[in-house]
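Quick start: what a row looks like.
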Amino acid sequence: MVTLYSYIVNFIVALGLGFSKPQTHHALTFIHGIILTDGEKTLSNIRRSTHKTRDLSCMTRFLNESPWCPNRANRRRIQFMMNKIKKVRS
């Protein structure tokens, strides 16, 4: 069984994206799967890499229908990293 790396979990929580518990779980699964997947990063390959028995349609619904904004998530990620860099530099 594959377990989630605690630094990834802490990073997603620290971003404060306002995800529900299921959304957080899906996001962590995707990030973890992307890291673990060799070669082409398709949804099927990501699902296989995480060894989740969850139906593929759940993963696609998270990406296509779940009420979250990828641009907001990216802005939060960039701001988080900029704050980390500023803290290290000072």
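That is the whole record. The chain is about 70% helix and 0% strand. The mean pLDDT is 85.
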